[in-house]
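The freezer alarm interrupted the setup, so I double-checked each line after restarting. Inputs confirmed:
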Amino acid sequence: MRGLAQAIRETGVSGKRLMEVCGTHTMAAARFGLRSLLEGTVRLSSGPGCPVCVTPQKDIDRFLAIGFAHGAILTSFGDMLRVPGSESSLEEARAQGVDVRIVYSCMDAVDLACETDREVVLFGVGFETTAPGVGVAVVEAQKRGLRNFSVLAAHKTMPAALEALASSDIEVHGFILPGHVSAIIGAGAYEFLPERYGMPCVISGFEPADMLQAVKVLLEQIKAQQPKVEIQYSRAVSREGNRAAQAVLNRVFEPCDAVWRGLGMIEGSGLRLRDEFAQFDAAKRFDVEVPDRPEPAGCLCGQVLAGRVDPPDCSLFGEACTPEHPVGACMVSSEGACAAWYRYRG
Amino acid sequence: MREQSILLAHGAGGKLMSDLIERVFLSRFSRPGAKLGDDSAVLFASNKLAFTTDAYVVEPLFFPGGDIGRLAVFGTVNDLATAGARALWFSASFILEEGLELATLEAVADSMATAAKEAGVAVVTGDTKVVPRGAADKMFITTAGVGMLVRPWPVTGAGARPGDAVIINGPIADHGIAVLSQREGLRFESDVKSDCAPLGRLVAAAMSATDQVHAMRDPTRGGVASALNDLAAQSGVCIEIDEPAVPVRDSVRAACEMLGFDPLYVANEGKMIMICPEPEAEKVVEAIRKVPEGAEAVIIGRVLPEPAGQVHAKTALGTRRIIDKPVGELTPRIC
Amino acid sequence: MCLAVPMQVVSVEGERAEVQGAGTRRRIRTDLLPDVQTGEWVLVHAGFAIERIDAEEAAESMKLLEEMLGAVG
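Predicted 3D structure, all chains:
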């Protein structure tokens, strides 16, 4: 590890800010103290890589409304259990009688729908790593002729968000790209970043040594002034990605505009179910209009997610907002920048 | 008795109930010269007593390596062992859901009787109630346990001192993973069995090896992380562990990785954290390694003066990470 | 958001496969890797195999990384 840190220093490049955009990278960096290891050479920032953190309050409110008003069985990945909507969370709703079930795989929700007459709704949260699986679930539900299964799609896609960041005024000198999203979409999906924005990019694995190696490669690109997309995580990522997974994604979903909590609307950065699958689309199946509610006062999740500020810059951090009593999603998610910072003290 | 399931009538105080109690409990828990049947047990003790209570609501009732009955007995033994007491007499109170299969109840009672024998404890009094279907999840067991202190002084969580070593008796997180592997909705198969075990003789071995066991805690729900935080807070010290030194079975680590769990936060039922002065630590480890429950005992860390109340781990890379008390229940993550 | 673990395929049956890693076994879906074979290593995410891992390359990289890790300054 020191060998890699040494090699990074030896590139002679310093004062650069690199951004990772994957919750698992945020965790790995915090857990192993990579930020402090790189101090003086590189400033490591967390971008909007935690799908739990970027799910807008309104989507959570919508999902809960389906449970409260229609008595549906709400199924979700465990990550979302404690995330606050504007008034409640899945955990609180469960205590109030809503039938909330945590699933490890979205196929469990399909199986559940086969075993009951009640409506079963899956919260479709996650990036391109998870969305193909949800797509498979929808296709399977169609195959089995299920009439009581639907998905509330809240998926987000990375390239559009990266473009929004690269074209913004946020100072970033290079991206550490998410390993598993890339395994699906392929390294080629990011080529517009160096081509259009001169942005150095390296797709990194999740071991701390993977990330350090990725940082080294990024600094070398910066030094040589040759931005491109390189794959550090070659054992799992290729240029084309997983074609079968991409095919499912394209078959079941289509791009749409999406709101990222704290960042606002990013064009074409979301996924919604195609019309062909309308009967599995919970947004169409249930009357789920919920009012717009403002984010909690003082919450800087949006700025943190955009990498504009660090968690301690938020006045709520560690005071009104802690892992026990989170105000914003960045603190609830174990991979949110704020939770990671709090737990591992940066 | 011809019924196959528990009926509300079994809790009503009449003949059906006394038949049930006789058949399921008295036949298993009575000992020669100590026939159960009165509402209270009368006991004689010659030393300071430790007293504990606990409730067991585990789901599923049967899991690899144990069941709710075994858990109830050993869990109570271990609460007493944590204080440096040898468990002697237990009460067992059952809340049964109407519709529970009698065969299930008998299997649990069998398991409790076996466990009690293994641990050298007697169930001397008990109670049975039946609640309507839906008002309980099959079976809840509440125990109370009385034990005698092994030494004239109790061991608490407040005795850890800077310069102490932190010892654990074996690999962590087995129980939590074993139980989870059986839960609906997770469905993975695992070689992992619960580490459910009575720790009385482990503690006795440690306390014979040295007079200076300063503090102990059995890490159950919330895992080692929770227990260490309790100790650090109670003792007003900082506890530092060497993460690579904390034993975790490969199969447990693999399951934790798959589900997104940190082994430090996963439940145990056969582990004891022991804290003693550093010069005594090797002696204690050697002594407890001679006992089956301590065969894989290791030193995992040390007690520092500050920051008081903090628990942190030195990672494989030499960096530090704070180990906070867990918040909320353990749920599988995909993120 | 990327919790995926490498596991080895023990058997394949249509869209389902059994994978194992250090004593843990699970049944997963192979829809996203339709031609997966027994013996291959795959990344498992939320009950799906999402990509193959080149086992040799993985072993190589891990070795290399471990060496770098061991190079204490």
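Quick read of the result. Chain A touches chain C through 49 residues (CB under 8 Å).
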